[in-house]
Design goal:
The complex is a heterodimer of chains A (about 110) and B (about 525). Chain A is α+β, with helices and mostly antiparallel strands and about 110 residues long. Helices cover about 30% and strands about 40% of the residues of chain A. The termini of chain B are far apart. Chain B folds into two domains: about 180 residues, Ribosomal Protein S5, domain 2; about 240 residues, Rossmann fold (3-Layer(aba) Sandwich). The chains are: A alpha+beta (about 110), B alpha/beta (about 525).
């Protein structure tokens, strides 16, 4: 549910969705999309609580490394890597009935 | 996107080593890596640069950014790398043209807001940048005071990262900021705290004519002095007043002093070049490293901080043995060569050493009224803490007797410092002139060179036979006599000049120091 909302949200904001729910041997990618010349890897976090701060916190160092590895794997498989690359998080907060209430887009969350 | 480079500097000892900073932005996992042996402070520059760039409206793109500091085998230290690394990175990310940043050096620490703070060693940096033949040096505006005095290349003082970028982008901005820098130099806070310690006047010291005469000779010739006297006779008082009779720093000396102090980070940067000679009086618990300098990134110690000034070592025998022995090389050569992990550095240390000590542990040996309570062995032990080789390098030695009641009551103020300073300055000027003339004659023996006349030579021969003057002692006595003659503006060293020098030197034996 959350992922669907996030994809709509991104498409509405000018992102071209390239793939969803990709599995690689090193991890999973929720949404792969493109914005101008940049590939954007989006991690979707659906939360039923009202606080969305912890959604970002749930991308810890372990998850971050898995995301990086998976992104490199997926892009390399298609001959796209190295390319301009960005990691975003989209948090979707859901109300009690599981319906989306609000969407937040956090850009460029993985920089080291 | 691509490669861009600038120049930065790492301060090793008192020198600034040029470091070529390259930045490369490419596609890949976003992030910034700094390679080329960055120290902890340089590695943290990454976070400061990212925030400062974003705050200045020049966000770093989501690219893989690699920063290389070459030469790669020298450890880089200090937050002064923030600005050049930021400029190279921004140039690599197309925020400014790489060509504009190529022949530019920069130094400064960034705040998260993008403001610039002064870093250590600005004077050495300016000199090094001039030697490299770069076209522009960007410094925090506070550093302009000292840097504008020594730099022989265009310098711009900036307050923020945004201004630094503007300087590299637009010629008009650069000219505008240069004008602003000149204006700032006029209105800057001129006197720094601690710079304005009032120098006490020699006139406040009653009597002590012998010691004052010794200080005058020491000041005129840059000799070293040891004062021996009971507690409370005014050894410290006299030493503090030595500063007042030394001539003011000339320009080269001022630059040298400022370079050392700015490399240590002790000097207030607003103040510009040093105006007063330094006076350092380290406590006797100071370690060898504190006196000599050193540590991981080779910081100058007390001896270098006293360069061109006075190093006053009160309670000389109480200093640690190894600390005292470390004085030997600087006393002889006026500099120290220090080798540590960070590299080898030459620390200038041309100071006037003034030592003060008691004649014995209780302090009253030879006192006219008080009884000394020390056993002979204790006196011997106390004195042997100042080793022979060290004592040999100290040219003059005066014994300061306790002030008698009659002298105290007479209470006639002594000569003012200004009057003595005038004589000292004249003697120094005379010595310079004399040296300039002598070089035309070519080199003779040390006696001819210093213009000893017949009777003086005979007296010197007698002294050599009678006392155990070593080779160094001989040279030092002649030099001391030369200074005495300079004070009287005499080209010839006469008998009385030499005898005064011998008296100052050979007091060593009279006081029982070996």
């Amino acid at each position: 549910m959350g992922e669907q909302t996030a994809a709509f949200f991104l498409a509405e904001h000018g992102y071209r969705i390239l793939a969803r729910n990709q599995r690689t041997p090193v991890g999973e990618l929720d949404i792969v999309c493109r914005s101008l010349s940049e590939i954007v890897i989006v991690e979707v976090k659906a939360r039923s609580t009202s606080e969305y701060g912890d959604a970002l916190e749930s991308v810890g160092p372990k998850k971050a490394n898995r995301l990086r590895a998976a992104a490199v794997w997926w892009l390399s498989e298609r001959g796209l890597f190295p390319c301009a690359l960005r990691f975003d998080v989209v948090t979707v907060s859901l109300d009690r009935n599981g319906r989306p209430r609000s969407v937040h887009h956090l850009k460029n969350v993985l920089e080291s | 996107m691509g490669v861009a480079s600038t120049w930065g500097f790492t301060v090793v000892g008192v020198d600034a080593l040029p470091v070529h900073i390259e930045a490369h932005a490419r596609n890949g996992l976003p992030g910034v890596t700094i390679v080329g042996l960055p120290g902890a402070a340089v590695r943290e520059a990454r976070e400061r640069i990212r925030s400062a760039a974003a705050s200045s409206g020049l966000p770093l793109p989501t690219r893989r950014i690699t920063v290389n500091l070459s030469p790669g085998d020298i450890p880089k230290e200090g937050p002064g790398f923030d600005l050049p690394v930021a400029l190279a990175t921004l140039a690599a990310c197309d925020h400014l043209s790489p060509a504009g940043a190529r022949a530019v050096a920069a130094v400064g620490e960034l705040s998260l807001e993008g403001n610039l703070r002064p870093a250590r060693g600005a004077v050495s940096v300016a000199e090094a940048a001039g030697r490299l033949g770069l076209s522009l040096l960007i410094v925090p505006v506070e550093d302009l005071a000292a840097v504008s005095q020594v730099a022989d290349l265009p310098v711009v003082g900036v307050r923020t990262l945004g201004e630094a970028v503007l300087v590299l982008k637009e010629r008009t901005a650069r000219e505008r900021l240069q004008i602003r820098g000149k204006r700032w130099l006029r209105v800057r806070p001129k006197s720094a705290e601690g710079d304005t310690t009032p120098v006490e006047d020699m006139a406040q010291v009653y009597g002590r004519h012998q010691a004052k005469r010794a200080l005058e000779i020491v000041a005129a010739g840059g000799h070293h002095l040891l004062m021996i006297g009971a507690p409370g006779v005014g050894k410290t008082m006299l030493a503090r007043r030595l500063l007042g009779i030394l001539p003011p720093l000339d320009r080269t000396e001022a630059v040298e002093v400022t370079r050392i102090w700015s490399a240590t980070g002790l000097r207030d940067v607003h103040a510009g070049l040093a105006t007063a000679r330094p006076f350092r009086s380290p406590h006797h618990t100071a370690s060898r490293a504190a006196l000599v300098g050193g540590g991981v990134n080779l910081r100058p110690g007390e001896m270098s901080l006293a360069h061109r000034g006075v190093l006053f070592m009160d309670e000389l025998p109480e200093f640690a043995r190894d600390a005292l022995e470390a004085l030997r090389q600087p006393l002889e050569e006026g500099r120290m060569v220090i080798s540590r992990r960070a590299g080898t550095s030459v620390f200038p240390a041309e100071f006037t050493l003034v030592g003060a000590m008691n004649p014995c542990p209780c302090g009253y040996l030879g006192h006219p009224h008080k009884e000394c309570s020390c056993p002979a062995a204790a006196v011997h032990r106390y004195r042997t803490r100042v080793s022979g080789p060290l004592l040999d390098r100290i040219d003059a030695l005066v014994e300061i007797p306790p002030l008698s009641v009659a002298e105290l009551e007479a209470a006639e103020p002594g000569e003012a410092s200004a009057a003595i300073a005038k004589r000292v300055a004249t003697a120094r000027a005379f010595a310079d002139e004399r040296k300039a003339r002598r070089t035309r004659w070519g080199r003779g023996g040390i006696e001819e060179e210093n213009g000893l006349n017949g009777p003086a030579t005979r007296l010197l021969r007698k002294a050599l036979a009678g006392h155990h003057l070593g080779g160094r002692g001989y040279v030092r006595v002649v030099r001391l006599a030369r200074t005495v003659a300079d004070l009287e503006e005499s080209f010839q060293v006469q008998e009385e000049h030499l005898s005064e020098a011998l008296a100052l030197r050979l007091d060593q034996r009279r006081v029982g120091m070996r």
